[in-house]
Amino acid sequence: MAEEKKKGITVKKEDDMAEWYAQLCLKSELADYAPVKGCYILRPLGYALWEKIQEYFNKRMKYRGVQNAYFPLFIPESFFKKEATHAKGFTPEVAWIANRDEEGSERLAIRPTSETIMYDSYARWLRSWRDLPIRINQWANVVRWETKATKLFLRSREFLWQEGHCVYETNQDCDREVELFLMEYKDLCENLLAVPVLYGRKTDKEKFAGADYTMTIEAFMPDGKAIQCGTSHNLGQGFAKAFGLSFQDKNGEASIPWQSSWGISTRLIGTTVMQHSDNRGLVLPPNLAPNKVAIVPILYDQTRDIILGKCDQVKNELREFDPILDDREEYTPGWKFNEWELKGVPIRLELGPKDLEADQVTAVVRDTGEKQYIKIKDLKSAIPEMLALMHERMFKKAKQHLESSIVEVRNLDELNKAIEDKRLAKTYFCGEPECEDLIKDKTAGATSRCIPFNDEKAPKGSKCVHCAKEAKWNIYFSKSY
Amino acid sequence: MAEEKKKGITVKKEDDMAEWYAQLCLKSELADYAPVKGCYILRPLGYALWEKIQEYFNKRMKYRGVQNAYFPLFIPESFFKKEATHAKGFTPEVAWIANRDEEGSERLAIRPTSETIMYDSYARWLRSWRDLPIRINQWANVVRWETKATKLFLRSREFLWQEGHCVYETNQDCDREVELFLMEYKDLCENLLAVPVLYGRKTDKEKFAGADYTMTIEAFMPDGKAIQCGTSHNLGQGFAKAFGLSFQDKNGEASIPWQSSWGISTRLIGTTVMQHSDNRGLVLPPNLAPNKVAIVPILYDQTRDIILGKCDQVKNELREFDPILDDREEYTPGWKFNEWELKGVPIRLELGPKDLEADQVTAVVRDTGEKQYIKIKDLKSAIPEMLALMHERMFKKAKQHLESSIVEVRNLDELNKAIEDKRLAKTYFCGEPECEDLIKDKTAGATSRCIPFNDEKAPKGSKCVHCAKEAKWNIYFSKSY
Predict the structure, then answer these.
(1) Who among A44, A67, A136 is closest to B69 (CB)?
(2) What local confidence, expressed as pLDDT, does residue B6 receive?
(3) For residue range B361-375, what is the model confidence (pLDDT) as tens digits?
(4) Residue B167: pLDDT above 70?
(5) CB neighbours (10 Å) of residue B328?
(6) Does A128 contact B at CB distance below 8 Å?
(7) Strand partners, A254
(8) Considering only residues 310 to 339 of chain A, which have any Cβ-Cβ distance to chain B shorter than 8 Å?
(9) N or C: lower Cβ tally within 10 Å for chain A?
(10) pLDDT tens column, B140-154
(11) Are A266 and A159 in contact (CB under 8 A)?
């Protein structure tokens, strides 16, 4: 068929990852470019992945005592000015509303993040230690007026995310939960997306505008670039002071609380796609895939009805795996195999006359392409096992790539070579923002990714990879998206 | 306690419904005013109701073959101009972005509704009859630059909604599903919200800007005002022609498809609150309530541990009803009773020393305040029965109000009286927009609500309630939100 050729991806992942990625997102119908610069469309398959992430994370948040809410899209300009560092960080990329109610009335921004609009309300709601902790999350669209080119899921002017915003009595409570939600993100990446991550602290240069410190999870792509996948910030008391949050503590004294915020976005979809997929199309991790199984009948006139009946029975038995039964008349089995490979369905079940005779199906797993024959009566127990093994294989493969990419470097030459070799450089660093800028300039764009969790301090006497002054941190550097 | 008085609503529903409603929404912590004109905050309880609506309707949409997706917030100005009636209807209330990439580049609107941005993509995606029907929905925020005062949930510059956008081969297919989704909305109101509705066609004056016709569901509030709760539009081929949608039909010919759109919003929350709640607070319909049960232990020193243990056991047994166990030390049982009444929890279970002796709980249903004693071993079967009865009572009561409010009128004087009496006037109407404008002016703001489904045509020889020319429609008029 004419359609068949058009569908395939025309470049190889190993040859041109950027082009491969763009074609893959478009042709698998995950996403499409929008007629508005810097924006893109989450098509049903892409949005279904976001819904799976929401479903997983809503459960985890509920377990952690977080409640969902929704705050306005618009933020008064004066709110940004209240916390100076925050304002400085976000102002360049804010989109503004042209409408004004009266001449000279305040400008309204479209939220790039919601600290300011939420904490203004928190200040009105918070009275007593009994009201603490506050743990509120919102699922929302946010806008950042990027000037760089759009990269589907990874960089766009509008994207979808969740932002959690918590308030605590003490800094210790705050610290503990900044770490807690970081670990929730790490677990989500590992358990749902089969994506291993580095995790730890951001440098002062890379931390969130207005935070005391930022924790991050970082995935590492096959082309040697890292993706920041989620961040969890200890905001200290800066926003609380700026927005007038205070509470009566257990001793009856007025006290200023401590705050945190944490977020993940539709970036996670791009990360997962880039991490696992291949030249035939998407490889969706089984726990994320909206449909775990596609059933393709192999039809001949004589056995057609009986095979379709059998397929229906299989579909019904496997309904907990949201199977697709592709009984469309107008496409060949071969076309359908390509289609469901392109769309990343974890397991394809083929059922033809020979299978019928043996009361079996031919099962093909998406990641390895391996074929096996499974008795129909065994399917219901075999499928979850195959899915679990597939998840393990995908995670292990990605983890092996991450770990084997790490190389220890001690000076700028070694760092340069590591970056050229698409590696993840582990080194010592003084922590100075200026030094970090120079490292980026003097290499092919190496940026600090994170100071590893529980292994933060550089050994006594170690030297910064760039300035050779005494090092403060163990750290990872690499290129990044 | 000092808190106790502050919490109560200080006016009666029957005396000042507007003030009662505002206090109720704020004090029950459903919502709060935002520091941005025309906007409000959905607090966790309010947002939880929206999530229940989403959960219910996502299931129904999936059953109807609808897929969720997400399109950009921004719409190029030129898109609005493509469909003239649509542009005329929406332009006055559009919010615009101030940022421009270059001098003279096109203005961007914030979506007031997404027909235009979605159909631009549909035109690129649609090729063949095999691609039809398209049924895509998005859950999104939309912005309409209202100049009237904000009414929580009912009128605001930003609100949350779902918008379904379908494409069909024939007008018959389109008609059928315009009705189908209208009926889904009616069922949602009845089954989830216990809100009865009138349903039928809008007049030409009231139809959606750009639609061939609009179907609506209308609830009727205790103060004699209707609320438009959801609409389903047959868009004909107007948008398809404007945006260049066409497909190859089964005969190989180029053909123009037919389109529909349909939406419900956070208005449904306000409607439900106003319909059922009372002077003690929210009365949430059981199927909508996020927590169906609140357990309040009555604690004395001697029996404290054993009662708390029993309450824990009850909570665990009833976990499918998402019970709240209110074991807070710092509040009295009386304060807690008020709190959960204010917040509309359908069933309150009290457990004190006397209950303990009899191995029972004291159960109080929110709508009637009726008390019953239930053996702990019977609770698990008694609760769903009590909830089902409560739903029935609430629906019946609201339906009785709706039906007993209908009065047939034959001239403007009778219509005027009906409106003054807070009734819903059923009458005959010529269908002319000018006549409809005059009716609004000459009465205390009566507007047409709907032409009743399956009973549209006025009897032969009947006269329009206003101009006395030959009537075309049976119709309902009332005041409205």
Answers:
(1) A44
(2) 57
(3) 999 999 999 999 999
(4) yes
(5) 11
(6) no
(7) A248
(8) 330
(9) N
(10) 999 999 888 889 999
(11) yes
Any chain B CB within 8 A of the CB of A110?
yes
**Cβ neighbours, 10 Å, residue B464:** 22
Q: Do B51 and A43 touch (CB under 8 A)?
A: no
Pick from A284, A273, A286: which is nearest to A388 by CA?
A286
> What percent of chain A clears pLDDT 90, i.e. is strictly above it?
93
Q: Which residue of A has its CA nearest to B44?
A: A69
State the distance between the two ends of chain A, measured CA to CA, in whole angstroms.
Answer: 38
ipTM of the complex: 0.96
The reply to whether B69 touches chain A by the CB within 8 Å rule is yes
Residue B42 and residue A70: Cβ atoms within 8 Å?
yes
- Residue A4: per-residue pLDDT: 44
Contact A314, A306 (CB under 8 A): no
Task: Express as a percent the part of chain B with pLDDT over 70.
Answer: 99
| HSE toward the beta carbon, residue B130, CA cutoff 13 A | 8
Q: Which residues of A touch B50 (CB under 8 A)?
A: 70
Of B43, B47, B141, the CB nearest to A73: B141
DSSP E strands, B308-452: 324-325, 347-351, 360-365, 371-375, 406-408, 424-429, 447-452
Q: Spell out the residues 6+ positions from residue A455 whose beta carbon is closer than 8 angstroms to its own.
A: A200, A474
Given an 8 Å threshold on Cβ–Cβ distance, is B97 in contact with A101?
no
Which of A47, A63, A96 to mutate to probe the B interface, most B CBs <10 Å? Answer: A47
> Would you call A415 an interface residue with chain B, using a CB distance cutoff of 8 Å?
no
How close is the nearest chain B Cα to the Cα of A472, in Å? 42
Look at residue B283 and tell me whether its pLDDT is greater than 70: yes
Rg (chain B; Cα; Å): 25
For residue B77, which residues of chain A lie inside 8 Å, CB to CB? none
A108 inside 8 A of chain B by CB: yes
- Evaluate whether B97 touches B74 at the Cβ level (below 8 Å): yes
List, as one string, the DSSP characters of B4-37. HHHHS--S-TTT-HHHHHHHHHHHTTSEEE-SST
| CA separation for the pair B266, B43 (Å, rounded) | 13
Query: What is the identity of the amino acid at A51?
Result: E
Sorted by where each starts, the structural domains of chain A and their CATH numbers stand as 2-276 (3.30.930.10), 293-386 (3.40.50.800), 407-480 (3.30.110.30)
Contact A120 B96 (CB under 8 A): no
Q: Cα separation of A436 and A430, whole Å? A: 9
Q: What tens digit of pLDDT does each residue of B208-245 get? A: 999 999 999 999 999 999 999 999 999 999 999 999 99
Q: Is A73 on the interface with B (CB under 8 A)?
A: yes
pLDDT at site B5: 47
pLDDT in tens, B45-72: 999 999 999 999 999 999 999 999 999 9
B/e letters for B423-435, b = 16+ CB within 10 Å, e = fewer, are bbbbbbbbbbeeb
Is the per-residue pLDDT at A2 higher than 70?
no
CB contact under 8 A, A120 and B42: no
Q: Model pTM?
A: 0.97
The answer to whether the CB atoms of A120 and B35 lie below 8 A apart is yes
Task: Determine, for residues B36 and A75 on separate chains, whether the beta-carbon distance falls below 8 Å.
Answer: yes
Answer whether B454 touches A (CB < 8 Å): no
Does residue B339 carry a pLDDT above 70? Answer: yes
For residues A204 and A433, the answer to whether their CB atoms sit within 8 Å is yes
Contact B97 A98 (CB under 8 A): yes
Omega before residue A133 within 30° of 0, cis: yes
Nearest by CB to residue A141, choosing from B39, B42, B141, is B141
Hey, is A150 helix, strand or coil?
coil
In this prediction, residue A149 has a pLDDT band, given cuts at 50, 70 and 90, of confident
Sorting pLDDT into bands at 50, 70 and 90, what band is B330? Answer: confident
